[in-house]
What we know:
Chain A is an alpha/beta fold. Chain A is built from 14 helices and 17 strands. In chain A, a hairpin with a 7-residue loop joins strand 13 and strand 14. In chain A, helix 3 packs parallel to helix 5 and helix 11 packs across helix 14. Chain B has a domain of 159 residues.
Amino acid sequence: MKLFRIRGGVHPEDRKHLAADQPIIDLPLPPLLHIPVQQHIGAAAQPAVQRGQHVHMGELLATSQGAISAPVHAPTSGRIMGIGNYPAHHPSGLSVRTITLQPDGEDRWSDKLTPCDDPFALEPAEVAARVAAAGIVGMGGATFPSAVKLNLRERYKLHTLVINGAECEPYLTCDDRLMREQAMEVIDGIRIMAHALGVERIIVAIENNKPDALRAMQHAATAFDMLTVTGIPTRYPMGSEKHMVQALTGLETPARALTADIGIVVHNVATAYAVHQALRFGWPLVARVVTVSGGAVARPANLRVRIGTPVSHLIDYCGGTDEATARLISGGPMMGQPLPSTRVPVVKGSNGVLALTAAEIASREPSPCIRCASCVSACPCGLVPLEMAARARAGDLDGTVKIGLMDCVACGSCSYVCPSSIPLVQYFNYAKGELAARQRSKHKQMETKRLATQRSARIEEQKRKKREAMAQRKRKDATAAREAVAEESGA
Amino acid sequence: MTELTTIAGPHAHEHNHVTRIMLLVMLALAPATLFGMVLFGWPAVLLFAVTVVTAVLAEVVCLAIAGRPVKRTLFDGSALLTGWLLAMTLPPWAPWWIGVVGALLAIVVAKQVFGGIGQNLFNPAMVARVALLISFPVEMTTFVQAAGLAGNAPGFTDAIAITFGGAAQPDAFSSATVLGHLRTELTRGGDVAGALSGHFDPWALLLGNTAGSMGETSALLILLGGLWLIYKRVISWHIPLSMLLALAALATVFHLIDPGRYAGPVYHVVSGAALLGAFFIATDLVTSPVTPRGQLLFGAGCGLLVYVIRTWTNYPEGVAFAVMLMNACTPLIDHYIKPRIYGRTRRGEPLSYPDASGDDA
C-alpha cells in the first residue's frame, strides 16, 4: 500500500521488549473496586444504584447523561459499598464521584444482557446504540464516547474507517498483545464498526515494530476484501489520528476540523475489541488490557484488568516497584501523565502504568535555548515551538495563539529532542490552561454584566410603573377635588 | 515518589545536550585546527591558547557578575568554541593582545552583554573579527607563509618573542593571502589571470599549504569536518549548500562575462574563509534562522554578500561581514518564513476541503 510522508516526528527508544513477550493475563480481583462515574470526555454519568445493593457483572451502575456521555457498568458481581468521593486517575489527585464495589468473587454476569448472533443484520443506528449502551469509549486514551463517532455517518459522507494499531508510545504493548492474541475478535469488531459507519474501505495501520501483530491481523483479515492491514513506519507520533490519516491517505485534515470532514473515522484496536464483545455477547466495557512496565517494575506484564482496580494492585501483582522509581506514569512516557498515588483506580482510558527510573526519564535542569531548531524539525504540526515557548514565558498568550498554540497536539516531540531540556509542553499546557481560565472569567464577567443590566432595567421599569401609578392617582385625586369644588360652587 | 505530579510529558528524553553539540563542533574543527598549528608553528599554538583561555575566563567573570550558575553554564562549552572559532580566523602570527582583545569583544560585548548563550543577535566570533579588522588593520592582515614546525620555522622561544614580545615578523615569512594578492593586483590594474598565475593553486588551497588565517587554509579538512557535522545532524545542509552555491553561481556568471576582471567559482569557494564560514560560522545555531527555507535564504544571502564584498569593496575577504549582515536579518527571516502548520495554508487559514459533505462546523 502506498504511504505518504508526514512532517517531523521523533524516534524514541521504544523499550517495548520489556513487556512485548508477556501474554495477556487476567488480573485477580482486588478486594474493592473504585469506579468513577466519569471516565470519558463529556458529561459524567449519573449513579443508578443504591448503597448496599447487590449487582451482577455488567449491570448498569451509572447512566449516561446527554449527547456526549457514557454509562458505567459493574466490572464484577458484588455489593455496592458506597457512592462517594475517591482520588481520580488524574495528576491533580482530586477526588471525584466514585462508586465503590465489593466483589463477591462469583463473577456472575447479569441475565439482562442482549447478545446478537448477526450484528450485520442490525440497523447501523442500532449498532451505535448498543455500543453506547455498553459504555464504550476511545480506548487509545482519548476516551471519547465511541458511539458518537459511529453516528458521524448522519452528518458526514464517510468512506474510510482507519483502525489505529500504531501504539507509537514507547513501553506500551497492550494493543500489540491484543492484536496478536485476539486478532479474529478485533477484526470482527472492526467489521461491525464499518457496518455502523457505512464505509466502503477499512485500513488497519500497525507500526512496523510489531511484526507479529501485523502478521496475525493480516492473517485474520484475509477473508475480507474491503480490509487492508498495513505496516507503517515506526515514528512517534504516528498514532496521532490526523497524522496517521495523512500517512495512509495523503489527506490532511483542515485545522479545527475532524477527520470526518475528509470522510474518515479513526478508531483504536482495543475499541474494536470492546465493540466485538458488546455486540456478539452483549458484554459492556468492564475490563481492559493494561501494560505494566518500566525499568523500576520487577516483572513487566500485560494484564486484563477490571475497571476500578487500584493501580497498586497491578503493581503488586507485577512484583512491585523498586526504590529506583523516579516517576509513576499513567499511559506512555511521551504523553502520559504522572499519577499522584497508587490508590487511584484503573479507568477505561488507562493503557499503561509505568514506573520509570531516573535514567529512563533522563530529565535535566533546563538551560537557555540555543535556537538549534531541533524542535522545529521534530514538530509534526509545523509549529515553531521555541518561539511559542518564548512567548508563553513572556506572558504573551495571544501571541502564542497567533503562531499556532491551538494547532499543537501536545505530542511532546519538541521537549523530547530539546538539547537544552526546556519543558516546552509544560509552557504550552500553561498557556492553554491560562487561556481557558481567561475565557471562563470573561464569560463569567459578561454573564454578570448581562444580569446586572437586566436587573437595573427591571428596577427602572418598576420605578417607572410606580411613578406612573402615582401620577395617575394624583391626577385622579386632583380631578376628584376639582369636581368636588365644582359641585360645591354649583350647589 | 519524590517529584511533583504537575510535570508535563514527555517523561523520556533524547540523549542530546548543548554540551554534546558544542563538543561535536569542536571535534569537527579539530583536524583543521591541528593542521593549522602544524603549518604555522608555535606562534599559532600560542595565539590559539591565549584566545581560548581569555574567552573562557571572560565567560566565567561575566557569568559571576550576572549571577548565573557559573559551573553549569561554562560547561556547555560555548565560550570555548567561540574562542576557538575566533582563533581560527586570526592571522597565525598576530601578537597576543589581538587574541585577548578579540576574545573579550566576542564574549563580553557580543555575547554576554546581549544576555549570554542563545541571546546574541550576532555571531560573537565574527563581531570580534570584524572589530579587530577595522581597529587593527595592519596586525589583522599580516599573513605568513605556511612554514610548519620544521626547518627554519621559529622555535618555541622565537615563537614567544613573536606572539608576546612584539618582535617583528621576519620578512622572509611574510606572504599575502591569495585573496589579498588578487585584490592588490586588480587595484593596480592587472587582470585575474596574471594575478593568479603562480599564486593560485587550487590544490594548495584545498590542502591548506598556503598563507592565510590559522584554521581557514585547509579547505579539505574543513569540508570533511563540516560534512561530518551534517552527518551527525548537528547542522543541516541548507546553509552551507545555499551559501556555497550562491557564491559559486555568482562567480561563474561574472567570470563568464569578463574572465579578466572576475575570478572563477573554484577560486572563490576554496580560498579564504568561504568553507569555514559556510560550515562553521554561518551555521551558528543561535544566530541563523530556524526553518529550512529560512536557512536557504540566509545561506544564499551570505554567499551573495561574500561575493559582493570580495569583488567590489576594499576588503579582500567578506565572510565575517556577510555573516554579520545576514545575522541582522535572522529575526526578520524567522518572522516571515515559517513552516506551514498542519491543516492550514501557508497564510494560516484552515485548508478547505472541496468534497466537504458535512455541516459547516
